TrEMBL record:
Domain of life from the UniProt record: Eukaryota
Repeat in keyword set: no
Entries under Gene3D superfamilies matching the protein: MFS general substrate transporter like domains
Signal peptide segment: none
Name used for this protein in its record: ACATN protein
Record GO terms (molecular function): acetyl-CoA transmembrane transporter activity
Biological processes per GO annotation: acetyl-CoA transmembrane transport
């Protein structure tokens, strides 16, 4: 019902925009210098070869390694420890207003000449929240009872996620502001797309690696097995 309702809303609003919104014919948008796919990729290659852009790309591709495990694995581990999926999904609801308000607030601090300062300042707090998430996973079985989890545990989880959203959006908005600021206006779309793609890749590959490393790095013990079994692999755990 939820998906059906919002699907209908999207269909109605986009249809209204298509029929009611008129283009301003007087203002002719400046065309980018690129002409086709080949020229665009040549341009992107020439941009990425610039020393400053190359350094920035290396920074962005490695900057999120420190908190990738906490971001990608915490929710899965909480479910593994017995926290119901529907409760975790419900806890995401209070985050929605926060996610709407945060960019508006943070943009005031990233509008200046050095938007990346906000990125640097938020990073240590986001790293510390990784320890907080690890504590939440460790704490879950300690407070679990027959009826589930106490209200104060969910309150701590919501507060932790809210603080995490603040650091996450501080870094996200700062990067977007920086990309918009340094992009050449003549090829703004191409330039910004390149930097934003690298930024997105910098957030995705560490999370993928973190998820892949969960099994090899997890210490398991087999109860009731004949002989010594470490259960290090999925096949051994199944046996």
């Amino acid at each position: 019902d939820f998906l059906f309702f919002w699907g209908a809303v999207f269909l109605v609003t986009t249809t209204l925009v298509a029929f009611l919104k008129k283009e301003n014919q007087e203002l002719i948008p400046a065309k980018e210098e690129t002409k086709g796919i080949t020229d665009t990729y040549r341009l992107l290659f020439s941009i990425i070869k610039m020393p400053a852009v190359l350094t920035f790309c290396l920074l962005i591709l490695t900057s999120k390694v420190g908190f990738s495990a906490a971001d990608a694995v915490t929710g899965l581990k909480l479910v593994e420890e017995g926290v119901p999926k529907e409760h975790l999904a419900l806890l995401a609801v209070p985050m929605v207003p926060l996610q709407i308000i945060l960019p508006l607030v943070i943009s005031k601090y990233t509008a200046g000449p050095q938007p990346l300062n906000t990125f640097y300042k938020a990073m240590p707090y986001r790293l510390l929240l990784g320890l907080e998430f690890a504590f939440l996973v460790w704490w879950a079985p300690k407070v679990k009872h027959e009826g589930g989890f106490p209200v104060y545990y969910y309150a701590v989880v919501v507060l932790s996620y809210a603080l995490h959203q603040i650091t996450l959006y501080s870094m996200y908005v700062a990067i977007m502001a920086f990309n918009a600021k340094v992009s050449d206006p003549l090829i703004g779309g191409t330039y910004m797309t390149l930097l934003n793609t690298v930024s997105n890749l910098g957030g995705n590959w560490p999370s993928t690696v973190a998820l892949w490393l969960v099994d090899p790095l997890t210490v398991k013990e087999c109860a009731g097995a004949q002989g010594h079994h470490t259960c290090a692999t999925a096949a051994a755990a199944e046996v």
